[in-house]
């Protein structure tokens, strides 16, 4: 049997943990375009207990206010897992789009969200809508490398087709291969989490805004001839056999991609049968890379 439960433990939230730093690479900054004066923030009131001394009550009040200031949905996140080798991160997943948040001008706030498939790298940055172009994106991608000490990736995956021109141009100028793909699983899961834990708590949040992750549904297109299969059949394999095949991806005996079951919180018994589609073709390599 398989159990599905999302594992959010890898997702970092924009909290300043002064007593327990996230890592040596973590830094959080206030978004300069957002003024909290327009969206007043409710302060926690200290509760004075008769059993506490004045100094103790003052200490409790200061701690509560410090924790509240740390839990700031307007903060930006810069994180790299200290246990990961920066050179091993060769692919990024990015989203560069407006958010259901208004700035002090009443205009939509934009955000760049970047991660890798294991969420070992996490980066967010807000932008006003009047600086959205490929130059801004290119500079932001370079700043990630400067801030975290990581090299530019070989590939960048993105799922929003409406941002293809800007993302492609920025990637090309940096020598990065842009890959339009809906296989941005880690990014999508992180965005769903940020919607609930960050955006809805932001002082400029717009209730009733359009869904953040409304994916495109393009018209069906004819399959290229080099991807035609000559024979096909529905098959099933025990999970142990599937896992063995997936291990070949890590040793590069075969090429392809797999899902991070740990990130998804999926547990499957070795004997569980996994259904699939087997395709026989003389064009196996281009078909497998589809």
TrEMBL record:
GO terms for molecular function: RNA binding. Residues 92-194 form the RNA-binding protein Tab2-like N-terminal domain. Residues 211-289 form the RNA-binding protein Tab2/Atab2 C-terminal domain. It comes from the Eukaryota. InterPro entries: Tab2-like, Tab2-like_C, Tab2-like_N. Pfam families: Tab2-like_C, Tab2-like_N. This is Uncharacterized protein LOC104237614. It comes from Nicotiana sylvestris.
């Amino acid at each position: 049997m398989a159990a599905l439960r999302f594992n959010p433990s890898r997702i970092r939230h924009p909290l300043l943990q002064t007593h327990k730093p996230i890592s040596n690479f973590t830094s959080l900054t206030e978004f300069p375009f957002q003024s909290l004066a327009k969206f007043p923030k409710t302060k926690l009131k200290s509760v004075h207990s008769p059993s506490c001394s004045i100094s103790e009550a003052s200490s409790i009040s200061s701690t509560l206010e410090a924790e509240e200031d740390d839990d700031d949905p307007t903060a930006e996140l810069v994180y790299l897992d200290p246990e990961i080798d920066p050179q091993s991160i060769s692919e990024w997943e990015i989203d560069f789009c407006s958010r259901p948040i208004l700035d002090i001008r009443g205009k939509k706030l934009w955000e760049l969200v970047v991660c890798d498939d294991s969420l070992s790298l996490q980066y967010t940055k807000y932008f006003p809508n009047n600086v959205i172009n490929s130059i801004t994106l290119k500079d932001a991608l370079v700043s990630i490398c400067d801030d975290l000490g990581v090299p530019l990736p070989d590939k960048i995956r993105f799922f929003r087709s409406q941002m293809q021109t800007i993302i492609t141009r920025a990637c090309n100028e940096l020598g990065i291969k842009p890959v339009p793909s809906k296989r941005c699983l880690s990014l999508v899961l992180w965005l769903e989490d940020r919607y609930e834990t960050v955006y809805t708590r932001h002082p400029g949040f717009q209730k009733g805004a359009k869904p953040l992750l409304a994916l495109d549904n393009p018209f069906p297109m004819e399959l290229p001839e080099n991807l035609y299969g000559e024979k096909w059949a529905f098959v099933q394999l025990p999970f142990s056999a599937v896992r063995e095949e997936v291990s070949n991806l890590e040793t590069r005996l075969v090429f392809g991609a797999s899902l991070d079951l740990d990130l998804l919180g999926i547990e499957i018994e070795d004997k569980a049968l996994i259904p699939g589609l087997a395709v026989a073709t003389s064009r196996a390599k281009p078909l497998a890379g589809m």
